[in-house]
Amino acid sequence: MIDAARDRVPQAATAGEFVVALRDVRRRSGLTYREISRRASAAGHWLPPSTLATMLGRNTLPRERTVVALLAACGTPAADIERWVGLRREIDARLSEPARWEDEQTPPASTSAEPDSTHRTPGDPHPVSRPARRRLRMGALALVGALTVGALLPRGEAATSASATACPLVLRQGMYGPCVLDLQERLAASGLRVPVDGWFGPDTTSRVIAFQAMVGLSVSGTVDQPVLDALSRDPVLPVMWPENRVSISLRETFAQDPAEAVRVARCLSGLDPLRVEVMTDGSRRWGLFQFSDMELSRRGVDSRTALDAGWNIAAARDVWSRTGDFGHWHCPPAP
Description:
5 strands, single chain
């Protein structure tokens, strides 16, 4: 439930801190990206889920209208929205000050010859002044710092860094930072429950594989531009069965031994129909009863089908009916 009273204007001094505060508003609202988009539209704003994901995934100052749309959708009072907008304008003004100051401090071009104030190379008709060279060097150093700071920061600081770091071309398990956080928020907005903590761990890998399978992409567990493009298109994915529905279906299907059916499925997948486990040899196991790649091939089904809870339970029932027990799965009872 939205607690608008808590969405007070933060003490943000930089664009990055401002965006972090907006992320916090979104998280505390409890709304998905789709829900925020629908609420914003109802309030007369335009805020597609992809635009929202992009805005919250960067550390640059967002547009004023998108800030207003997000806050309005999350139930922030009008008076507080005005103060948010005022803060954004203050930050924007501060960001513009260095450029103006530099322009004012740059001396006018001299008409007298000053051999040591410029650098001229043979054949170069455009000499570069010392102040210009200094600005170029500072800009290059700032760019290098922005590209490397995400890798150098400790885990707890990487996700909230105010520097606008460029995301790698491929995201994979073991990475950490704002780019992974953006990915996780996009997955969550698509209906795939995943920890939104900025760490690309096994849970995120599982969800990436499930997403790739369901939208027909190559199943790799890594995230490249085609995956991000698919997420930006706001794909319509099958509704994930909640745990109580899974439990009821298991008990009905395995009426002869309902408690054991639930226990085994919980042991294998945590009753998560979209759970995908990657084995040490690179093979994968799919869904509630963790059917292997080889088992899917033998049954003539694809990975998308394997993630369908109804199919997975029916296939497990078929195995159980032939063996008479759950010995096919290695899931010993808890001591």
